[in-house]
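Protein data sheet
==================
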Amino acid sequence: MASANLVQDLTCPICLEVFTDPVSLECGHHFCATCISQVWERVSGDVSCPQCRQVFTQRNTRPAHILSNVAEQVRQLRVGAAEQKEEFVCREHDEKLKLFCQEEQAMICLVCGLSAQHKMHNVIPIKEAAQANKEKLEESLKLLQERMNQGVRSQQEGETVIRRLKDQVDGRSCEIRAEFEKMHQFLRERQQQMEAELQREADKILTQLENNLKRTVDEISSLEVVMQDVKVRLGIQDPQGLLKDIQALLKRCELLVSSPGVVSVDLPEDVAEGRLRYLKVWKEMRAVVSPVPERLTLDPDTAQNNLVLSQDLMSVKYTTIEQNLQDHPKRFVTKLNVLSSQGFTCGRHYWEVYVGYKTEWVVGVCRESVDRDGLHTSTPAEGYWVIYVFSNSVKIPNVISHLEINLRKLGVYLDYEQGQVSFYNADDMCHIHTYTDSFTEKLFLILNPCDYETDDNTEPLTLLTT
C-alpha cells in the first residue's frame, strides 16, 4: 500500500484529495487543474499561488504528466486495497472469511458461522466450496464450449448458405445475360438481314423505274428538236424550200415516244409480308434458346399391357382391354407406365406434356433401373421424380402439397448436372415444384395416364412439339 508520506505529497492543497489532472504553477507548486481554475475564477486581475502567495500577471499552468501518472497509480492501489479488504474480510466482525454458507451462497467468517443466522445452515470451508464450485464452473465451461461450437457451426453453415445463394444468384445472372445476349444478337442479325433484303429488292425496282424515266426524258428531248425543225420548215414561204428533203423530215416526225415497260412496284411476297417473316424469325430463334422443348417419342417396349400408344408414338391412353403385347425386360407389368425412347445422362432438357382435362395422371422423370414388376412407390428414393394429379389437385410424393391448379399443359425441366427436376404450368411458366437430388444413371421421361371409372379421365397424355 502507498505510504502516508507519498499520499501526502500527492495530495492537492485545495481539495485535500489525491491529484486529479495536476498542473504546475510558475512557482513550482502543484494543484488539481479544476481546483486552481475555480480559485482563480473568483479573482479579477493578477492571481497568486494559494500555497506560497506568489503573484502572477499571467494565468499560466503546465500539465504535470509524471505527477499525474503517479497519482493515478496510488489511487488504483487504494481502490484495490479497499476492494480486497471488502472482499476477504467480514464487514461485521472484521474477521477473515474462511467459511462458505451453502444456503446463502456467501462467504462468512468463523464468528458468522457460529451465529444464530447460520447455525442451521450447511457451512463448509472456503477451500472445499471453492473446489466444488470450480468443478461446477468447469462443467459449465464445457457446456458453454459445446454451445459455442454449435454456434460457430451454425454461423459457418449460415455463411456457407449465404455464399452458396450469392454464387447461385451470380451464376444465374450471368446465365440470364448470356442467354438474352444470344437472343439479342440473333435478332440484331436477323434485323440487319431483313433490312438488307428489303433494300436490295427496293434498289432493283428503283433501278428499273429510273432507267425507264431516263429513256422517256431522252425521247422528249428528241421530240423537242424535231418539233423545232418542223416549225422552221413551216415558216418557209418558198414551195421549193418547203419541199427540200421533205421526205426525211416527215420520217423524223414519225418518231414516237415508246411506252415504258410496266415495272411492278410491289415488293416480293417474302419481303413485303413482314408479320409472317417475324413468325419465321421467332421459330428460328428457338434454336438459340437453351433449352427448348425437345421432341420425344414413347418407347412401346416399356408400355404396360393396358396402354395404347398413338401411331406417331407421341401420346398414350389407358384401355380396359389388356393387350397381348410381347414380353420385354423393359416393360412395366403392374404400373400403367411408359417411358420415352430417349434417355439422358447429362445436360439440360425441357419437355411439354398436354394433360388436357384429365382428372388423374402421373408425369415426371425416372431412373433406367426402376423396378418394372412390383407395386412400388413412385418416390425419389425409388428413382422417381414425379407429380400426381387426382381430381385436379396436384400431389407431390413426400411433400405436404395439395395445390389446386388449372393445368392443361405441363412443363418438365431436367438439369442433370445440377440434380434438378422442375415442373411448370407450361401456359404461363408458373413454377409448381422442384426436386433436388444426385443423378448417377440414365433418366427417362415417364407418363402414366391412370385408369378410369368414368369418362372424365379417358383423354390421352400427349407429348407436345413446337
Remarks:
- The longest strand covers residues 360-367.
- The chain has a mean pLDDT of 84.
- The CA atoms of residues 186 and 284 lie 9 Å apart.
